[in-house]
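Allow me, if you will, to draw on your knowledge of protein folds for a short while. The matter concerns a single protein, recorded as an amino acid sequence and a row of backbone structure tokens. Kindly check, if you would, that the fold set down in the tokens agrees with what the sequence suggests. You will find the record immediately after this paragraph.
***
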Amino acid sequence: MTRPASRLPLRIRLVAGYSAVMLVLLTAAGAFVYWRVEYALDRGLDTELAQATAVISPLVGPDGTVTSPESADATGLGWQVLDADGQVLDSGGPAPDRRLVGSAGVETGTSDVGSMLPVSDAPYRVRISALSGTTGPAAYLLVGVRRDHRDEALRELLAQLTIAGLVALAIASAVGYVLAKLALTPVERYRQRADEITATESPGLRLDVPANRDDEVTRLGHTLNRMLAALQGSLDRERQFVQDASHELRTPLTLLTSRIQLMRRRARSVEEHEQALDELAVDVARLTELTEQLLELDTHRSTPEQVTDVAAAVRTVVEQWRQSAPDGVILTRLPDAPARARIGPHELERVLTNLLQNAATHGRPPVRVEVRRLGTHVELEVTDAGPGMPPELLAVATRRFHRAPEARSRPGAGLGLSIVDELVTAAGGELRLAPAAPGGLSVTVALPAAD
């Protein structure tokens, strides 16, 4: 059973295609050379025939005989005089007694008698011309020249072209194979390296791409390395998400299981069941909130090229916050002119909501929100009057689940600032944490200005 061409190695298919093209080109070039040589040789023979015809034609008498055979034979070519029926009336030179052009009807012009391949015993190139002005039986003058040297030269040329073409094709195929192998060697090296990376699952392994080259293969290597880095980043985020989720969900799930097991140990009244259900509802609500925060960390990692008026967005979010939390005091200081920044409205709403939630949970009122335009950036600052954050925690506060010991008794899982940091970084901005005067925490979001 033959092997499908599509399953052959790529270098074999490349060499096969290259060889096929070279075969066509060499055949076409050989055919052109053969045609030009044949044309030149035939033209030389035709010149001899025309000269001999010009000499012999005036010597043909009315009865079809040549008046001076010696002069006709001096041309060195064979000649025959034919009547209207094609019968030989006179002949001379190396021409045979039989008619050279066969027994069919006679037609004027130049033609070849005998084949070059296979080799003919008496190859001729013959010119037949009509005799005009004769009153006798003579009608045609046939002049023929032997083609032995011409045919031998063409046979030798054909053999040399065939041998040279085959040798050139073999050399071209070998060179093409070497070039294809050299060109595909880096690709094969990349493939083997990719297999090693897949087998070892080592996060630091990358393809070995030469630094001093810039061609299609090296650009492919750089692209594959970027793809590996992106895949590694995705895997790292996935592992981090699974670790975070398993770490943070274990405690509330264990607490829920313990409460349920405790309720099943003995019979309880309706009031006790309702109280337990209320406690379970609180635990489920906290679990739901934690799950939503974990999911938010893995979504919207890149902000599209959108422009949002930060001042207008702050007014909307603050008004919504006042309606949902009337006990909180929020003071705003907003510019009169629009403060447009390069961030999506949904992302900006999530940033401000998380900052307000963080201030309400860990700080104390009044909470101040200020928007200002500074050069190429728009700054959003949220400040509370709470106890603030220890200096050692400021540097790691944006990491997941990092909270001060005294904050662990309050709601939350330490994910709010992580969400804000990722959204702001994705938009090309910067998040800064600093103590507020006279007390509390100041969180500043610097976003690239849109105009």
